[in-house]
Amino acid sequence: MAKVYDVSMLIHEGMQVYKNKDDKRPKFETTSDFQTGSAHETRLHLDAHTGTHIDAELHMVPGGKTIEAVGLDKLIGPCRVIDLTGVQDGITRADLEPHAPKAGEFLLFKTRNSFEETFNFEFIYLKEDGARYLAEIGVRGVGTDGLGVERSQPDHATHVTLLSQGIVVLEGLRLKDVPAGEYVMVALPLKLTGIDAAPARVVLFDGLELGSLAFA
Predict the structure, then answer these.
(1) Is 59 one of the catalytic residues?
(2) 154-191 burial string, b = 16+ CB within 10 Å, else e?
(3) Consecutive H or E run containing 141
(4) Within a 10 A sphere around the Cβ of 132, how many other Cβ atoms?
(5) Of the listed 59, 99, 156, 159, which one is catalytic?
(6) CA distances from 20 to 61, 84, 100, 146, 203 (A)
(7) Do 124 and 146 touch, CB atoms closer than 8 A?
(8) What is the DSSP string of 74-91?
């Protein structure tokens, strides 16, 4: 029997948001309750980059592709969690080389970020040389347990290097309880169109035999 890990952040009004910015906090507005109507209904006020989410090329590349261009063929399939909990600042090529990334892989970075419940301005991120290394190899995607794959890069070099090469960027994972190893990942963004990102529910299956898939 396959074991399932839900590696998505819980969305709530007090959750961790990027740089603790109030305008990025989700808000739940009750628009109807049993005193004002016959049903209970809620309106969500949600940033596209809330919690666990997938970035589109447009996020950092002017004129780039929007979120619906990220195909399910890139988001459903094998992945590998690599343990980078010893990294103290940013993930470099030297940190990645011992893990021998391969073309077509989807790599998920387990760092100290997964153990922090509040936003840390010094969160672990992927440095530009690490991003270039992965782009040269031709990985399918990169997942990080930080709310950003980069930090303090005025030219957004990490994002641009990955996104401009069609490499999926998945941010805000929770990997605290997930051992390093190989899994089957299902990452499903909200079916939005024309924008730069979408929140996603991401699960990992351990011990699942994945047959061939045909995407309609």
Answers:
(1) yes
(2) eebbbbbbbbeebbbbbbbbbbeebeeeebbbbbbbee
(3) strand 141-144
(4) 16
(5) 59
(6) 25, 25, 35, 13, 26
(7) yes
(8) HHEEEEEEEE-TT-SSEE
Residue 108: closest CA among 132, 85, 137 = 85
210: DSSP letter: -
- The tokens for 28 are 């739940």
Total Cβ atoms within 10 A of residue 22: 6
| Distance separating alpha carbons of residues 141 and 65, to the nearest angstrom | 16
**Model confidence over 117-161: pLDDT tens digits?**
999 999 999 999 999 999 999 999 999 999 999 998 889 999 999
DSSP bridge pairs for 189 = 200
Per residue in 71-87, pLDDT (tens digit) is 999 999 999 999 999 99
Q: Assess contact for 84 and 185: CB atoms under 8 A.
A: no
Closest of 25, 10, 60 to residue 167, by C-alpha: 60
Residue 21, CA distances (Å) to 48, 49, 50, 91, 163 in order: 14, 12, 12, 25, 25
- Residue carrying the six token digits 């004002």: 36
Contact 188, 68 (CB under 8 A): no
Residue type, 56: A
Q: Which residues pair with 106 in a beta bridge?
A: 141
**Mean pLDDT throughout 82-93?**
97
AA letter at 14: G
